[in-house]
User: Fold Nuclease PA3 from Extremus antarcticus.
Amino acid sequence: MSTTLLLIALSALQGADAWGGLGHQTTGFIAQNFVHPATEAWAQNILSNTNSSYLASVATWADSFRYTDEGSFSSPFHYIDAEDDPPKSCNVDFERDCGDAGCVVTAIANYTQRVQDGRHSDQEIDYALRFLVHFIGDITQPLHDEAFEIGGNGVNVTFDGDDTNLHSVWDTSMPEELVGGYELEDAEAWAANLTTEIRNGTFAASSKSWLQGLDIEDPKASAMVWAQDGNNVVMPDGIEPLEGNDLYPGYYKGAIDTVELQIAKAGYRLAAWLDALAAKSDVSKRWQPREQYWKIGTQGVKLEQDFSGSDLLREPRAAKSKAKMRRQAIGWGCGHKH
Ligand SMILES: *[C@@H]1O[C@H](CO)[C@@H](O)[C@H](O)[C@H]1NC(C)=O
Ligand SMILES: *[C@@H]1O[C@H](CO)[C@@H](O)[C@H](O)[C@H]1NC(C)=O
Ligand SMILES: *[C@@H]1O[C@H](CO)[C@@H](O)[C@H](O)[C@H]1NC(C)=O
Ligand SMILES: *[C@@H]1O[C@H](CO)[C@@H](O)[C@H](O)[C@H]1NC(C)=O
Ligand SMILES: *[C@@H]1O[C@H](CO)[C@@H](O)[C@H](O)[C@H]1NC(C)=O
Ligand SMILES: [Zn+2]
Assistant:
């Protein structure tokens, strides 16, 4: 895709919720429709849930977890603040854009490693899978791949008369306007529609291309392809036409096809990613004795291994960019919730 597509003015992502509940659950249901039966069994085992919404019902967990004391560390994992210059120039640069504590790209890489690492506890592996289901959704939301105005959170608009901001319009207002609700059943119905469009409809011809660059052996590079793809969906006219205006129905009509496209991509990629993970997961590696957590250092001293994924991060910087400081100042959480 390119800047010729309409879309987002540069918005960016920001710390908010990425897709709202409806978008994330729809992504989960689409993935359920596409995964291999062996993947379904693998995921249901990890999640201890065999019901008809085993992925969809954990798809928003990460947005609740981030607001707990235990989970606050994961707030920066929902986005990558690309400090590009839309609409003139759009791009994501890992070294420039990923924050000191990580971003959605490192998070996808980290939890891809963790979900297949049997040295972690069952609960850590369960969390890793929940994070992946969520973040592969977040990374397709264009405003989660752009720093402009904190992912569009700073662009005040109205939507059908309600005061909101550009980020929330993408996460929540446009999906809910299209579907007419935000319950689990609404997500299931939307997913059924998009699944048919992928199998035998509008998306049948292009869906294979959505998996380009997907390499389970290089999760960071794969996630960068997805971030770049989301970031590409930028509105060429800048935000001036949006700020202070009602985005319904004009802007909505121009953008809703892209919303559907991105949700469909997220679900389809999630299925392919989980298939690849399940295929290489070695169940016998689980339940290794606790000793496996240690390696022997010099003079026979046992050292605890580093499982923090810190090697995925870039070098921290002494000075933060203006965009990173603004992000920090909003305290990470300005999502629109029901
Ligand atoms: C499936 O299980 C989850 C987790 O227990 C629950 O939240 C959800 O409501 C269940 N869904 C159905 C359709 O039973
Ligand atoms: C946008 O709205 C918020 C309150 O919702 C307000 O604090 C902020 O100043 C507004 N920004 C602009 C640029 O008008
Ligand atoms: C999906 O929904 C749209 C809009 O309601 C409709 O036009 C289209 O035919 C539906 N596709 C399928 C495969 O049902
Ligand atoms: C795909 O759609 C076409 C036209 O809508 C229909 O004739 C055909 O039976 C469908 N194929 C499948 C496999 O559903
Ligand atoms: C990897 O995941 C663990 C467990 O959630 C977390 O403590 C760590 O900070 C993560 N590392 C990165 C680089 O995201
Ligand atoms: Zn999120």
Remarks:
- The chain is about 45% helix and 5% strand.
